[in-house]
Design goal:
With 504 residues, the chain is an alpha/beta fold. The protein has 19 helices and 18 strands. Strands 1, 2, 3, 4, 5, 6, 7, 8, 11 and 12 form a 10-stranded mixed β-sheet that branches. Strand 7, helix 5 and strand 8 form a beta-alpha-beta unit. Helix 12 runs parallel beside helix 17. The N and C termini lie far apart (47 Å). The mean pLDDT is 96. The chain binds adenosine-5'-diphosphate and alpha-D-glucopyranose. The site of adenosine-5'-diphosphate (ADP) has 18 residues, from helix 1, strand 13, strand 14 and helix 14.
Length: 504
């Protein structure tokens, strides 16, 4: 049942790296950013780096029993017309299989007036202030501990202001004399655009001339754009997405800036934490399995159909979906193809997700129309997401765009063939099955059209009839090493570049 281990690589001199993010698994997660923040942090930590991960102390942490222990005592941050009390708490990342020694401590920025609320992201008027204050609190926490980061690794729009605030507000402090910033784009579709009138309340008035002037004249401040302008280096989560975001089609109106910064922009595909996502050690699934022995996968499949109350023993494959339900994920392509697929074939579909109401209504309709064949769970349920990965035969990701995508990487490990559109990280991580050459790890389609998706689904049905070929694809996928142990080296190289590049 053994998976091959990742070969060790030479240790590097320890770096001081701060990862700042709005999500970090298992404490606060809506999507892949949470997995990346914790797993990259933990992988760097295991490699001997001095890592600090910062996350807001949302109300839900306490509710879920994630109580931090005291860190820094309360201090007050002044914003125009408002004082904000903040302190830090520490909480250990749960130890994983590979952890020897002390676990990494995540630092929770505890500012109750801003984060003791339901949900992570809000629509209230002080939303920009919540994130500006979070960014400032992180910098002030460094000052209070006298810790001088080599690289502050910011993530997505919530931390987009951090590079500017550091440059324009704190650079006087010798502590930050050599500190560099890296901003990772996990999703260009979310930018944090707010009315220009918020500039004053954020305490950015004196940095006004360093904001994007045209944007201000148009009446807004865009946090992600500000980060793209001021971070020393930029990265995103796959090489293909790094190219795509420089095109008008996928650039969400920021492609111009990204093209200008092309020589400081790289793509690094996310890794997988195999201590959490591997069928030989997964505590959430019905039976363990691995590349040498897939008997347990059959048990997981039967258990999954049972859990969703679906008819057992289908002749065709079980398809799985675990996803936020948003336009990005390409589900608008499904209605045209799924109805005939389900009518004409003895297949099953298990869906886990939540999001836009019109998509939820569609999946609800599908379940009502095919009650023996389609199971849907609306909500967020981590153990079930593991069981869908383990029990499905094919995992569907017809994304319109996908910066990296993690579920296709989990699917590979669980012997579940990913069926993906070739975009972003999906294009970089799933190799199209080629029956002639006997190569490939999944089913891939290209055009963003239902007919192209239909072709890939039909292909999966054909290949299913040849179970030897199927097992070959499974085996190749299960042997792919997408571990963080491997990917972390690319970040180490990038941090080294960020630290030494005097032109950034
Ligand atoms: P994105 O970050 O765009 O949502 P990714 O594929 O990078 O997409 O990561 C999604 C992560 O969130 C995966 O770990 C997936 O298992 C998880 N996830 C998404 N929706 C749910 C859900 N409803 N319940 C449990 N886990 C979910
Ligand atoms: C984003 C992207 C997803 C990526 C994740 C982590 O949410 O939508 O493709 O895997 O961030 O980088």
């Amino acid at each position: 049942m053994a998976f091959p281990p990742t070969p060790p690589s030479p240790r590097r001199p320890p770096l001081r790296i701060a990862i700042v993010a709005s999500e970090c698994a298992p404490f606060a997660k809506t999507g892949g950013l949470a997995d990346v923040a914790s797993a990259l942090g933990a992988a760097l930590w295991r490699r001997g780096h001095d890592v600090r991960v910062f996350l807001p102390n949302y109300r839900s942490l306490g509710e879920a029993g994630h109580q931090g222990t005291p860190g820094l005592d309360t201090w007050t941050m002044e914003f125009p017309g408002r004082s904000i009390d903040v302190r830090t708490l520490k909480i250990a990342l749960p130890a994983s299989e590979n952890d020897e020694g002390e676990p990494l401590q995540v630092e929770l920025v505890d500012a109750p007036t801003l984060f003791d609320r339901d949900g992570f992201y809000g629509e209230e008027a002080d939303e920009p202030l919540r994130w500006a204050a979070f960014n400032r609190a992180v910098l002030e926490a460094f000052q209070r501990t006298g810790w001088s980061p080599d690289v502050i690794h910011a993530n997505d729009w919530h931390t987009g202001l951090l590079p500017l605030i550091l440059r324009a507000g704190y650079k006087w402090d010798q502590l930050f004399a050599d500190t560099r910033t890296l901003l990772s784009i996990h999703n260009l579709g979310y930018q944090g655009a707010f009315p220009a009138s918020s500039v004053e309340m954020l305490g950015l008035d004196r940095m006004r001339d360093q904001l994007h002037q045209e944007r201000l004249q148009q009446g807004s401040i865009n946090f992600l754009e500000t980060g793209l302008l001021h971070a020393h280096w930029l990265s995103t989560v796959s090489k293909t997405y790094a190219r795509e975001i420089q095109t008008e089609d996928q650039g969400f109106a920021l492609d111009g800036i990204l093209r200008q910064r092309d020589d400081h922009l790289v793509g690094i595909v996310n890794g997988v934490d195999y201590a959490d996502w591997s069928p030989d050690v997964d505590p959430h699934i019905a039976a363990p399995f691995g590349p040498d022995d897939l008997a347990g996968k059959r048990v997981c499949r039967d258990a999954l159909l049972d859990e969703f109350n679906l008819a057992p023993d289908p002749k065709g494959p079980v398809y799985g979906i675990v996803s936020r339900m948003t336009g990005q994920k390409g589900f608008e392509l499904l209605p045209e193809v799924l109805t005939p697929l389900l009518q004409q074939n003895d297949v099953r579909l298990c869906v886990l997700g939540s999001g836009e109401k019109k998509l939820e209504r569609y999946f609800q309709w599908l379940r009502d129309t095919f009650p023996d064949k389609v199971g849907v769970y609306f909500g967020y349920k981590n153990p079930l997401s593991h069981r869908i990965e383990a029990g499905s035969d094919v995992f569907l990701m017809p994304s319109r765009y996908e910066p990296c995508g993690l579920n296709q990487l989990y699917s590979l490990r669980y012997g579940t063939l990913p069926l993906v559109r070739a975009t972003g990280g999906l294009a970089d991580t799933v190799e199209r099955y080629d029956p002639e050459a006997g190569t490939g790890t999944g089913f891939v389609f290209y055009e963003y059209e239902s007919s192209a998706l239909d072709g890939a689904l039909r292909h999966s049905l054909d290949v299913w009839r040849d179970q030897d070929a199927w097992a070959g694809i499974q085996c190749r996928g299960m042997l792919v090493d997408a571990s963080w142990e491997r990917q972390v080296r690319e970040y180490e190289d990038l941090y080294a570049t960020v630290m030494t590049d005097v032109h950034a």
